[in-house]
Amino acid sequence: MKNIHVVTVALAAVLMCTACNRDKLSETSIFENVPTLDTNSYTYNFDRFLYDSLLVPYNIAFQYKLGDETTDMDYNLVPCKYNLSQQVACAVKYLWIDVYAKQISPEFLKLYAPRIINVLGSPAINAEQQTEVLGVAEGGVKITLYNMNGFNLKNMAWMNQYIFHVMHHEFSHILHQTKSFPKEYERITAGLYDSQGWQYHSDEEAYALGFVTPYSMSEAHEDFVEVISSYITDTRATWAKRGFEMAEDHTHIVSMNEDQEGTTIIATKINYCKTWLREKYAYELDSIRAEVQRRQDNLSEEVVMNQLYKYYE
Ligand SMILES: [Zn+2]
Question: What values do phi and psi take at 231, rounded to 5?
Answer without folding.
Answer: -60, -40
